Request: fold
Amino acid sequence: MNTGTFPADQTVDATAALSELARRTAMLDAISYAAAQIVGVADWRVGIQELLNRLGRATDVSRVTLFEFHQRVDGEPVESCRYDWAEPGYAKLSDDPRYHNIPIKEPEGQLHAWALARQRGEIVQATLHEVTGETRQTFIEHGTQSFISVPIMLRTGVWGFLGLDDCQEERVWHALEIDVLKTAAALIGGAIERAATDEALRNSRERYALAARGANDGLWDWDLTEDRTYFSPRLYEILGLPEGTLASPKAFARQLRPKDAVVWRKYLAHCVAERRRKFEFEARLRAATPEQQRWVVIRGLIVYEHGAATRLVGSLRDITDRKNIEIDLRASETRVRAILDTAFDAIITIDQTGRIVEFNNAAIRTFGHARADAVGKMLAELIVPPIYRAAHQAGLKRYLETGKHSVLNRLVEVEALRADGSHIPVELSITEVPIADGRLFTAVLRDISERKQFQSQLAVAERQRTQLTRHFSPNMVEELMQAGGRIGVARTQPMAVLFSDLYDYTEMIATMSGEEVIALLRDFHVVVEDAVFNHGGTLDKYIGDGVMATFGTPTPGPMDATNAIAATRQILRELARWNQQRDARGERRIRIGVGLHFGLATLGDVGTDQRFELTVVGDTINIASRIEQLSRLVRTAVVASDDLIQQAIAECGQEAAEGFRDLGAHRVRGREALIRLWGLSAESQKP
Reply:
């Protein structure tokens, strides 16, 4: 039997493994959309509905919700469903007033357990059989079988949560899937923070414009020739000092933080030395605590006469709000940068010319280029194999001119180029991000080399499993798969051996066509094969119209002789049914002979590294074959040796040999001593 060789550990279910890979791929594709459409645009709310739609379809759940924590007008904490997606047939929650302003406190005044967990940034998972009380009623009302929520965390605390309901099964989410959901929540949180920071910055600028129109700056004038100074009332107000308390520029400088005061004096001296006319300097005022820290900007003009500075005129403006917003904005951008750099997939952003403007850490690992070397380079020259570059550039040009594309917003498999010149297969998803002065395209790429290798190994293992099932019972197939398809060294062990063939085969086929002969043999083999496999046997080989099977291979069992007899009884029953059908068609009845013997035989793999060939050899095999030949002489369909009958009785009692009659001692070719035989008629087994 040729069954090939294959890895020992390839016993996983191919369909389940590939299904899990496909679902995780779809989830990551939705995250790539979020990175481009939510984080990369001014208003995150524009793309949030599409993200929830994609997450719902990718995760194969029934509902995806985005809840926000906030306060009612009376100050009580509540939660409201702001956005959601529902599978067809399920109601949306964001349109239902019942899911707005939902209290999250217990009657005793403390937060619900789930609300507390979310405040701590924890994942909440539950299935229908785990929950009780009002939570269970809610599950039943919505048809929810399982639920998971991921908190949306901001620097100031929890904003809300991303929830997913499965109404089909009680799902337990895998760690890798939860990590992807965390990334989605982090991207949403980053987008919300950025939007809040942008809004605050806009408000600050509006306040600044109003203040400027109202002459809100503090003014100062320093006459260097007379060494006289003037400080306006507004300047004293900004500094928080009583009017008239500043006697000199040095006194003014002392209001700055000491380090900033030193830099201010050096900066002003440098401007005078270089004969600059204008100056601008940002500094921090003295403060007792970091929370009281304030920022000011000092702007002004330097007046020169005969080459010497004679007067400095300037203004002082409080820019604390703007500086704090700028700091928050940089922190938000840093956070988004960190999210992108910790992403599992390579994320590359290019402008409309094809030049790289973003290259995250995963891209560095995947393609082997440092970020500094990648940013500014043409994508086509960096990671597109030479053979595909012209097509890539033509496709980008065609899209910019006509809007026609073949890969945008789709998941495709392509070949990519690494820094060392090697090629790797990648999954690619590209999303366009419109901006004020052009277009950006964000590509999410995943190295699928291991997956391709895994899929290839699965295919080989499946072919080899199919080959094994032609010869072994299902339990033996699993054992051989786990053993790597090899028996190891040859071993001698006890086993039951069955030989069977058709009576009068040569005479029968003399008047049959070739196709009819093949059909006859196939039907006979099906009868024997089913009986052998149903009782844990192994089909050793087909020999023309004959079949050889063993019981107790590859591993001996406690009922091998009994199983051989049980398989024989099934063969006789199926033969009786087959003959009833042939009688109805007016065809010749089929008669068979079966020989059974039990004893020691040697099992081994006689194949090569390229071909697996398992067989059994020894005197026991020869005796079983010759006993089958005696069935014609004693005119009995089944002939078994006394060794097999006694072994079956020892295994299962006298009922194992029920129906067998003693045929006496007979001489068997190859044996000097007579062998006691037992017979079982075909008529003893009813269909």
